[in-house]
Design goal:
With 214 residues, the chain is mostly helical. 71% of the residues lie in helices and 0% in strands. The protein is built from seven helices and no strands. The radius of gyration is 48 Å and the shape is elongated.
Length: 214
């Protein structure tokens, strides 16, 4: 009687032990939360892109907005610098051309200076003098003064025009090339200044039109 009872009691225990040693099924693995470890069931930390994302829920990382703003400001600053350089170069080219015209054909400053020398010559020769002295004092000094003033304007035209032409080669390089009309006008100012300077030198030393003889 005792033997049969012992046999029947040990069989269910063995069956229970076999059921406890079975590995977990796929349903238990699926129950692990997303991002967790299948072995421990613990949730892993956020990945690097997730950590860089903004806290307000947008997809753009925190540092990218500041980088975009800095880049936008730099582009605006470069655009403003290029615009200011273009305006200055254009103004310099126009000034060079205007000075070249004045140096070539003369201006009111040269006329005033010439009339002043004529008046001084008349005062000096009012008490008498030879014909050669009157010619030199009244007309010669007046012509030479006009040539001197025109030569000064011609030199200024040369300096300003050359500066406008060679300015892009110095300093920080510009994103945009210098407009062609600026170079053309500056080159015209240089040419006019050079012609005016040559004529002024020739007039000052009486190489083209000399003083009449008495």
């Amino acid at each position: 009687m005792n033997t049969s009872t012992a046999k029947t009691s040990t069989v269910p225990a063995a069956e229970d032990a076999g059921e406890e040693q079975q590995p977990p099924t796929s349903d238990a693995a699926d129950a692990v939360a997303p991002g967790g470890s299948p072995a421990t069931g613990e949730k892993n930390g956020p990945s690097v892109p997730d950590a860089l994302r903004k806290t307000d829920g947008s997809d753009e990382p925190d540092g990218f907005e500041d980088l975009d703003e800095d880049l936008h400001e730099d582009l605006e600053d470069d655009g403003d610098d290029d615009a200011s350089r273009g305006v200055g170069a254009g103004a310099g080219a126009v000034v060079s051309a205007a000075l070249g015209v004045v140096g070539l054909v003369g201006g009111w400053t040269g006329k005033v200076a010439s009339e002043r020398e004529t008046l001084i010559g008349q005062i000096k020769t009012s008490s008498g003098g030879s014909a050669a002295q009157q010619i030199a004092e009244i007309y010669g000094d007046s012509w030479h003064t006009t040539a001197l003033v025109n030569g000064i304007f011609a030199i200024l035209a040369l300096l300003v025009g050359v500066y406008v032409l060679v300015r892009p080669a110095f300093g920080a390089p510009s994103a945009k090339p210098q407009p062609s009309w600026i170079r053309s006008v500056a080159l015209g100012g240089v040419v006019l200044g050079a012609i005016g300077l040559v004529l002024s030198i020739a007039m000052f030393f009486d190489l083209i039109v000399g003083l009449p003889s008495a």
